[in-house]
């Protein structure tokens, strides 16, 4: 069993408006794990990610990093690119902000674009790219900084099914090759069943953990795996837990 | 083909109107102090060329100075507003008051304060007051419109406020600023001319004064000549700023897409 990378203890968040987004969330994430957070809309999944990224402070509870805080990457639901920068300059942003020399930053972001299959498009501006390609630039930007933890907030929700499946496969490959821990927020049962080593199901607002399902997917997956009974069993378990959470 | 027609039709219409105008003035024997013929206006361009050129240069200089001043102060104040809510809350009402008070009503006061011997400075201040607000208002809006998620991303990678301003907010505000510049360029011209009207004759030497003075002496063709120069100046300013907008935005901004595709 790998050591915990991050531990959330009794984390809750109430916004100034009085809305309680999450209540007493306990969560341990192990290094190298691919964890999906699944739950109905507005159950505080995004809020949890933002607390982990230290973009907002929890109202109560604590976030601890037993082995030190790693480099974190964040991928949003929208590609969130700067329209006035081409793909390469967008991917270069984290390295630029970290003060890495332009030369090194360009080499690393070029390599990152190549790994997401966009080597030919480094000079293209966001408006010249399709939705799926923009999301690939967004992923290249995240991995260019060599994160140990990748936080993803429903990144593929707006894409068509084929694009989503190919991005799922590419994401798994990247995470495995770089040993990246991923916390992946989604409301798709099938997507979470396909990607995850572990699925945590949350209740409607205020969100708390209602089910913690360990899966044992094969290390390499493809379309055929979607047809196995292991996959449908996993999807069934997640779906049942989600139904239970909604009814609660 | 379409491009050719966009020039041919307006030019043909203009020529036709001038022709009818010339004919009508001669045929109905319209007095030249009511409506001079286009040929008489053209003659005025030749006869009054020294005076018109000097007046154009004076007005042009004031417009450019006022516009540059409006650009610098408008953007600087917008940056200050975007950095500090308190500064914005304190100053914004006064910027609005400056904007809504008719420039023609403030003009006599400014002229007295600055002094008739520095009438150029008074005109500059008045033109600046008119041109300044669109730059301030639009740039402030642009700086505030930065994508929240991008700001979070910048913070995640430890960006300073300066980096967020320079690399995210300012480039994002550029389309807003360029739109405001097109409005302000025209307003600076209007402000400069109106200020001259208000300052009174005999003190200033720009196109506004030329029009008032020629009107007083019933030199209507000189008034038309000065008006034509003002129109050309206004159109030139608009086209220059549109060209600048295109040069800076056409690679990435949505506003440029419909024209290209």
Please characterize this protein's 3D structure.
The complex is a heterodimer of chains A (248) and B (261). In chain A, helix 5 links the parallel strand 6 and strand 7. Chain A starts with a strand and ends with a helix. Chain A contains 7 helices and 9 strands. Chain A has 248 residues and is an alpha/beta fold. With 261 residues, chain B is mainly α. Chain B has a single domain, classed as MetI-like fold (Orthogonal Bundle). Chain B contains 11 helices and no strands. Chain B is flat. The two termini of chain B are 16 Å apart. The relative contact order of chain B is 0.12. The model of chain B has no long low-confidence stretch (mean pLDDT 91).
CATH homologous superfamily identity of the largest domain in chain A: P-loop containing nucleotide triphosphate hydrolases
How many separate structural domains of chain A?
A: 2
Strand content of chain A: 15-25%
Name of the level-1 CATH class of chain B? Mainly Alpha
N- to C-terminal distance of chain B: 16 Å
CA-to-CA gap between the ends of chain A? 32 Å
The second-level CATH architecture of the largest domain in chain A is 3-Layer(aba) Sandwich
Give the structural class of chain A: alpha/beta
User: What is the CATH superfamily label of chain B?
Assistant: MetI-like
List the uncertain runs of chain B: none
Helix and strand layout, with pairings?
The complex is a heterodimer of chains A (248) and B (261).
Chain A lengths: L3 E11 L5 E11 L3 E5 L6 H8 L7 E5 L7 E4 L11 H11 L4 H14 L15 H14 L4 E5 L7 H18 L2 E6 L2 H7 L2 E5 L6 E6 L14 H19 L1
Parallel strand pairs in A: 3-7, 3-8, 5-6, 6-7
Antiparallel strand pairs in A: 1-2, 1-4, 8-9
Chain B lengths: L1 H26 L10 H10 L1 H35 L1 H16 L2 H12 L4 H26 L3 H9 L4 H39 L7 H10 L3 H30 L7 H4 L1
Helix pairs in contact in B: 2-10, 3-4, 3-6, 3-8, 3-9, 4-6, 5-6, 5-8, 6-8, 8-9, 8-10, 9-10
